Amino acid sequence: MNDAATSGGSADSAAQRIADAVLAVPGVAGLHGGVFGEIATYLPGGRVSGVALTDSDGEIHIVVDSTTDLLAIADRARDAAAAVAGLPISVTVEDIAAPGQPLPPAPDDQNPATSPTSRGERS
């Protein structure tokens, strides 16, 4: 994805606000940065894994709790992200989390704010 929004300014806070809104959706177990960590918005000193923005749209990659309706959670996550971003948002369900199982660490996870363990969700 074209990372026009990663060059600084308001995109930095927008990516984190989107991540926070998506993580607040019941049934979203976490954000997923892709196999090689390629889905991210880069910030000074870190990144927001699982959120990629351009000037015209965005995408989020999520991990969904296996006990929930995947399509409904994806729709709610998209709506939450779009409400914050004011842009069309695409959602990819990258993984499904089993209840009580810790999420695998994201590749080169540099943003502890979006890590499930930093939020006390799973140990």
Automatic annotation (TrEMBL):
Residue ranges with Polar residues bias: 111-123
Start and end residues of each stretch annotated as Disordered: 96-123
Domain of life: Bacteria
Protein name per its UniProtKB record: Asp23/Gls24 family envelope stress response protein
Upper classification of the organism: Bacteria, Bacillati, Actinomycetota, Actinomycetes, Mycobacteriales
